[in-house]
Design a protein that fits this description.
102 residues; alpha+beta; three-stranded antiparallel beta sheet; 5 helices; 58% helix
Length: 102
């Protein structure tokens, strides 16, 4: 697709990306869980104990949130620590707030 054919703005694409990440209640729970622990990161194993889902399913949800840029992970084998990506979290708050104000 060329620039001439592109009809979506960067912000519209971001709204869609963040919206997709928020489209599942498990992912919303994960974001809420991490946002309430902003002072520290959480291990995926800790979250797996909180949620009634398989670890592989949790991994898929974490991957989707990471792809949207809302979380970041740090690998310390055999553990993976996840935290809110503060810069993108704040951007998502601003972009979504502005979108819904219209």
């Amino acid at each position: 697709m060329t620039d001439k054919e592109k009809i979506f703005t960067v912000n519209q694409e971001k709204v869609a990306r963040f919206g997709k990440a928020l489209s599942n209640p498990i992912r919303v729970y994960i974001l809420d869980y991490l946002a309430n622990n902003l002072d520290k990161c959480c291990y995926s194993g800790d979250m797996a104990e909180e949620l009634p889902i398989a670890r592989s399913t949790l991994s898929e949800h974490l991957s989707e949130l990471k792809k949207a840029g809302l979380i970041q992970g740090e690998i310390n084998p055999p553990y993976i620590k996840y935290c809110i990506n503060r810069e993108n979290w704040e951007e998502a708050q601003t972009i979504l707030s502005n979108f819904f104000k219209r």
